[in-house]
Amino acid sequence: MPEYAPLDLPENPKLSHNITHFARALRRAGLPIGPGRVIEAIRAVEAAGFTERWDFFWTLHACFVNRPEHRAVFAQVFRLYWRDPRYLEHMMAMMLPAIHGVQEDRTAQSAEKRAAEALLDGAQADLPEFADSPGEETLIEVDASATMSGEERLRTLDFEQMSTTEIAEAKRMLARLSLPVKPLASRRGQPSHTGGQVDARRTLRQAMRRGGEMRRIALKKPRPRWPNLVVLCDISGSMSQYSRMVLHFLHAVSNTQGQGWARVHAFTFGTRLTNITRHLATRDVDAALAAAGSHAQDWEGGTRIGECLHAFNRDWSRRVMGQGAVVLLITDGLDRGDVDGLGREMERLHLSARRLIWLNPLLRWEGFAPKARGVAAMMPHVDAFRAGHSIATLEELARAISDPGDDGEKARLLAAL
Amino acid sequence: MTVPGSIDAVQKMLEGEGYVCGRALGTVVFLALTLGRPLFLEGEAGVGKTEIAKALATGLGRRLIRLQCYEGLDAASAVYEWNFAEQMIAIRTAEASGGVDRTHLKDELFTEEFLIERPLLQAMRPQPGGAPVLLIDELDRTDEPFEAFLLEALSDFQVTIPELGTITAPEPPIVIVTSNRTREVHDALKRRCLYHWVDYPNFDREIEILQSRAPEAAESLSREVVAFVQALRTEDLFKKPGVAETIDWAKCLLALDVISLSPDVIADTLGAILKYQDDIAKLQGSEAKRILEEAQATLEPT
Q1: I want to staple B208 with a disulfide (CB 3.0 to 4.6 A). Which of A157, A327, A382, B20 is the partner?
Q2: DSSP of A128-159, one letter per residue?
Q3: Contacts of B184 in chain A (CB under 8 A)
Q4: How many Å apart are CA A224 and CA A226, to the nearest integer?
């Protein structure tokens, strides 16, 4: 057991109580704050003194915030709390759906509302449901007693043509699917008998065990590392059935251990870009997709691929692609926006990615030709172009993704352009 | 110099070194100095994260030890390495002179004489003038295993060398960790540090910084430059210009003997503030003129 130094609290115990309660309020607002950080904060306030409001703000800020996106929440909770702690509780009570009828004469300002909403995030009972059942979208019921086995048939069946039970079965199959990828050589070394570099440190250590007798030169080789995967998934109306299945697939990819991806970042886009990486980390696939579904608000709406890619390039590409990521772009490419802009954004995306793979469910039609202007603008900038409408094509993708020379149907379609 | 006793004193000390910092950053630096905790600075490139470590080191009269992170950084280049060539020579000499005593040789080979100290180990050693300032720059460029290694080094300020034992810092170094956020650094490491997001400065602060860093620039030019850069940051650019770019640009303009900004001058020197071809292309032609006019309009009243 480590020895803990006795904690010297400020003379006014009320202040430390208040800081503790403030930390609890922040915790409810979604900031990850443990008890250690609270003690740290009390010590910091003690060190900085309690003279000026702004110093106090920045002191607590340094201890409680460790992500830029938490700054706004912190500022608003701070403003609410340190004016009158009881008022905050009152605000929270007011915002709770259970006692929605209780209204005070005082009207809240916009910032206060936002902070209170931040505090209540997750406490809301009526989250929008993630419509999971395909309902009337089931088009064709194929007789299950075909010559192929049921599983075999599912593998080639289009997602859009599956019945509810088939979809459930397909989801189970998807959950077992993985995206194996070839490791890259990192700059770190690991011991190896066949490696090409001399490991001087180990050679000498071995020699010391034999009294300075060097019998063998120890060798090392580069240790493999895996690239990150960034997935941009179109969730607009024209893609609805596919994007859901693809999200199931993504959940499987990002949650299975030993998949060979260092990190998986997932984004959805329709009319705006949403980062759903954190939601996908939830273990239960239905809960994860429901959370992602309620977070992305442009579900089954229109598509503005150019603008969403622009937002991705501007806000995220440097943060998630810094270490050379493979990008999987899942969209039908039917964009009615500015085509020149789309081409530019695709070029930028391609320049910052290790490899850019485009999955297009429309490719399932035999006679698909890149006639749409959006498709024609995006095509030259991708490394590989593949179909993604059934489990079989996703399995194919898994094979293709580890082959750097693979370009899918790109050459054929570029010729048809 | 001893550690300043108040936030004002910290600000004053940094100002004396030509580093203009806001109250927020001053508070965090003061806390890091007083509590002896590492300081984790995150922010866009070119907002002065690295500079603060340099200013702090000269201000306090401490030695600055810099560890530049890169992919594949390992203990051999961050902490220590044995001088193998010297050790081999020592073995051969011992053999040549005859009578190799096994334990004796071992004691002799793994001593500080054959140890090459790398930045982290150097920072644990007592330095003249007091504990050094350890700058761990661009932590996001390295990988997770190194981060995990830093956890031990930063929380206990000690490193372990199997042959020599544990080396503990007699006085913990002042640690400054910076990150450009090209990836998310793990929370476990952030938790051990005081965190601060270094933002772009506002107009007045940037004028102050520019005057402190490029004092030879005339005030009217500095104001124009800062107003233009500030206006540029509100535009939709792939990479917004940082403070370092403002200073660079002002120096470029000085070298060209420019007295006042004009669209032509901007077009010629745009490479000093924008580093992506897309951004530069966007600003060619009438766009630069429009932003310049907007920026000059905000300056009018004074």
Answers
A1: B20
A2: PP---S-GGG------S-SSS-HHHHHHHS-G
A3: 319
A4: 7
Contact B187 A62 (CB under 8 A): no
Across the interface, of B70, B194, B237, the residue whose CB is closest to A62 is: B194
Cβ atoms B229, A99 nearer than 8 A: no
Tokens of B282: 């966007």
H or E segment and range at residue A240? helix A240-255
Residues B145, A188: C-beta atoms closer than 8 Å: yes
Q: Which of B31, B74, B118, B138 to mutate to test the interface with A (most CBs of A within 10 A)?
A: B31
pLDDT in tens, B52-80: 999 999 999 999 999 999 888 888 889 99
Kindly state the greatest CA–CA separation across chain B: 89
Pairing state between β A384-386 and A355-359: parallel
A14 alpha-carbon distance from chain centroid: 41
pTM for the full predicted model: 0.73
Q: Where are the domains of chain A?
A: 9-134, 174-178+226-416, 189-222
CATH fold for domain A174-178+226-416: Rossmann fold (3.40.50)
Q: How far apart are CA B155 and CA B199, in angstroms?
A: 27
Task: Tell me what ipTM this predicted complex has.
Answer: 0.71
A137-185: pLDDT as tens digits: 333 333 333 334 455 555 655 666 666 666 677 777 666 666 666 777 7
How far is it, in rounded angstroms, from Cα B183 to Cα A323? Answer: 8
CB-closest option in A43, A66, A344 to B187: A66
